[in-house]
Structures are given as structure tokens and as C-alpha cells.
Design goal:
The protein is α/β, with parallel strands linked by helices and 247 residues long. It folds into two domains: 162 residues, Rossmann fold; 76 residues, no CATH class. It is 34% helix and 25% strand. The protein is built from ten helices and ten strands. The strands form two sheets. The chain has a six-stranded mixed sheet, sandwiched between helices. A four-stranded antiparallel sheet has the order 2-1-4-5, covered by helices on one side. A hairpin with a 2-residue loop joins β9 and β10. It is globular. 39% of the residues are buried. The mean pLDDT is 91. The structure holds adenosine-5'-diphosphate and magnesium ion. Magnesium ion binds next to α1.
Length: 247
């Protein structure tokens, strides 16, 4: 059954139509891939699905609830988390503080949203448990900026997981990663998929075709092909274009 569904999403900025007609159906427990050339509208699509842009037309349903037009923090509270294409970590703070700041409990009790309280053992434990999910518990007290690029990516995912979501949107998680870090990230996503439903935008086709159950190909603001990796390998559209070369 679909946990997350978008139907006929349209988004324009002024006269420029960026999303013409996007429909997606993401099955609970699956990894759903989004691919397509630069400027196709993939990131804009994530912005719309997570409430950062209101669509001009279409409907978004999460866990049976119509979330179209809801504010990002409301959608987040319902169980939808996301990472951004550009990393936004607090570099000069320690790793664990990045996660603590994103914990719903912390947000609820804290007077100052920008200073984590390390005196609260329960919050520290909760943040450590999240870091453990991404393999960073032993780096909790290092400065965020001391992490390798791959570990920063994992920390960014931990920040998204701090909200205890059911659904996780990741925008180009392998961007800027070398081969080894990409393999480590693939391992992490295989582990996380046991707990979360995951939708990821990805340029690295090898990575995506290995991980995804289904993939939607977006071009010109439309879904031009959709299917399993095997189906897409056989798809004329995909095979003929540069998109198909690695597959
Ligand atoms: N806020 C905005 N205002 C105007 N144009 C935008 C805005 N956001 C994105 N776009 C345009 O939408 C198109 C798709 O962008 P984007 O969704 O970032 O593509 P992708 O992530 O597939 O590379 C681009 O041409 C971009 O310039
Ligand atoms: Mg993008």
C-alpha cells in the first residue's frame, strides 16, 4: 500500500512552469528513486512534497491524510523528514548537538532553540540512539566540522531521523562523495530501509539501481518513465538517453 502519494502536482514560478504534472506512489517500506537531468524539477518536487512550496494544482497524501498545502513543520510532525541538497549542519558545535537540536522533545522544552542542554541525560541518550542508527555514536562529542564528508552526510541523515519520521526524503545523498563513502552510504540506506520508507533523488545510477525498488524518471517537470530498475533498463526512453548508459 502507498504510504506517500502525489497526484497531478503542478508548480509554477511566475510564468515558468517547473512541475507540469507529477504523480508518485511510494509503497510503505520501499526505497523509491527519483532521477532525471539537472533542472528537471526534482528538488522543486521535494520542496512541494514536504510543504516548502505550495503546489498550484494536485494532491499530496501521506498515511491516508491529505497534506496538500500544509506547512513544513506540520508535515514534519506527521512523520515526513527530509535532507537538503545543500548540507545545513552547525559546524562549530559538536556532532551530538546537531541531533539534539532536532529532537522534538528538545524543541518542546527548550527556551533557547540554539543551545543544547547536555545536562539532560534523557535527551543525550535519545540523541546517541539516533547517532547509533547512522554509525556515528562514537563521534558524538567531536566537532561536526571534523567529520569526513561521508560522515557529514550520515550526520545530516541523523538530523532528519531525530524527528522520528516514517518517511525520509533524501536529495542527492551521494553528491560529492568518493567511491568508498558512496558504498558506506549504500550500506546505511540498506539498514535504514528496514525502519523507514525512503525516497531519494540520485544522480549516481549504479547506486540508485542497486538500492531502489522503483524509480521515477523526471524530465521537463513530468514523470517520463516509472518502474523497477529492471523495467527501466528495458525502457526505450531510458536506454536511449544518457540516463541509460550506466544502467
Ligand atoms: N523559487 C524558484 N523560482 C523560480 N524558478 C525556480 C525556483 N526554484 C527552482 N526554479 C527553477 O526550476 C527548475 C528546476 O529546478 P530544480 O527543481 O532545482 O531541478 P533539479 O533538482 O531537477 O536539478 C530550474 O530551472 C530552476 O531554475
Ligand atoms: Mg536538485
Amino acid at each position: 500500500m502507498a504510504l506517500f502519494q502525489a497526484e497531478g502536482i503542478q508548480k509554477r514560478f511566475g510564468a515558468r512552469v517547473v512541475l507540469e504534472n507529477i504523480s508518485l506512489s511510494i509503497v510503505e517500506g520501499s526505497v523509491h528513486g527519483i532521477m532525471g537531468p539537472n533542472g528537471a524539477g526534482k528538488t522543486t518536487c521535494f520542496h512541494v512534497l514536504t510543504g516548502h512550496h505550495v503546489p498550484d494544482a494536485g494532491r499530496i497524501v501521506f498515511a491516508g491524510k491529505d497534506i496538500t498545502g500544509m506547512k513544513p513543520h506540520v508535515i514534519a510532525r506527521l512523520g515526513v523528514s527530509r535532507s537538503f541538497q545543500i548540507m545545513n549542519l552547525f559546524d562549530d558545535t559538536v556532532v551530538i548537538e546537531n541531533v539534539m537540536l532536532a529532537l522534538p522533545d528538545f524543541r518542546a522544552i527548550s527556551g533557547s532553540p540554539f543551545k543544547a542542554s547536555f545536562g539532560d541525560a534523557k535527551l543525550v541518550q535519545a540523541a546517541l540512539a539516533v547517532l547509533d542508527q547512522v554509525g556515528l555514536a562514537d563521534r558524538a562529542w567531536d566537532k561536526a566540522k571534523e567529520l569526513s564528508y561521508g560522515n557529514r552526510r550520515a550526520l545530516e541523515i541523523a538530523v532528519a531521523l531525530a524527528a522520528a519520521p516514517r518517511m525520509l526524503f533524501l536529495d542527492e545523498p551521494t553528491a560529492g562523495l568518493g567511491g568508498e563513502a558512496t558504498r558506506a552510504l549504500a550500506q546505511l540506506i540498506r539498514k535504514l530501509r528496514q525502519t523507514y520508507t525512503i525516497c531519494l533523488i540520485e544522480h549516481d545510477m549504479r547506486f540508485l539501481f542497486e538500492l531502489a525498488d522503483r524509480i521515477s524518471v523526471i524530465h521537463w517537470g513530468q514523470v517520463i518513465a516509472e518502474g523497477t530498475p529492471a523495467e527501466l533498463r528495458a525502457n526505450k526512453w531510458v536506454a536511449r538517453s544518457a540516463l541509460g548508459e550506466v544502467a
